[in-house]
Fold this protein.
Amino acid sequence: MNKNILIWSVIFYKTRNYFRKWCDIGFRKSQEFLFWFKRIGWNYIVASVIMYVIVPLILYGLLVWGIYKSLMNSVKIKKLIEEDK
């Protein structure tokens, strides 16, 4: 059995009675984070869309772009190596 699965199973079993409490705490922390953006004029809905939709999409796009550039560079290097042969 995979060691990680065993560890997570034990953690899940021992904390099963506290899951709702953890979720409630996480939700309250998320609300506090989003309400912080009132300081710059964003309401709760605008802040949640920007922070949980737009920012992750931008980060995902940057990661995909970086991977694409890396792959293109490796293809160029392979072509150069093949030309030298």
